[in-house]
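Standup notes
- DV: blocked on the single-chain target, sequence here:
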Amino acid sequence: MMVVGSLCAFVHGIAPPIMLLVYGEMTDTFVNYELEVQELKDPNKVCTNNTIYWKNGTIYEMAENSTVYCGLDIEAQMTIFSYYYIGIGLGVLIVSYFQIMLWVSAAAGQTDRIRKTYFRKVMRMEIGWFDCNSVGELNTRFSDDINKINNSIADQVSIFIQRISTFVFGFMVGFIGGWKLTLVVIAVSPLIGVAAGLMATVGVQLGIAHCV
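- DV (later): unblocked, structure below
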């Protein structure tokens, strides 16, 4: 259960970078469509074989000597992107459910065995041991301490795996899509981390002061 839950968490972590890829492709489609619309406003330009030509038959080239693609069906493209988002959403819904369910179930089973083992050990102690340990302390260890183990094992591990997966694949997508900008982000990441830590510290202090 823990292995399958970890695999689900790993797949769940890949979803945000994939969504960024789809969003980037969708943005490029909007830009290309707007460029086509602006270029075809000129009555001297026509769209032939998905390429813009001058009416005299010569191909139209932009300043960087590149042609302009035309004939883009924006509604069909947006329908495809909608299917992409629906598929990603359903996939995330399924893997996130199994990610949490399997890890929580595994943690519950382990803590149940820990409680039973602890109870059997306590029952085998000599009578003098109970004179040195209060009933309240035993109850605290039996409930609170084991619940802490349960909380640590349950969804926390799966969320950690999910975020590590997002971190790794996010940088992979960044290097594939634009390695220069990714290097800039890596260079300023320590400063962002320090700023986030300072904000968290100040927030906690303000919360404590408000409670006091």
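- Follow-up: DSSP finds five helices and two strands in the chain.
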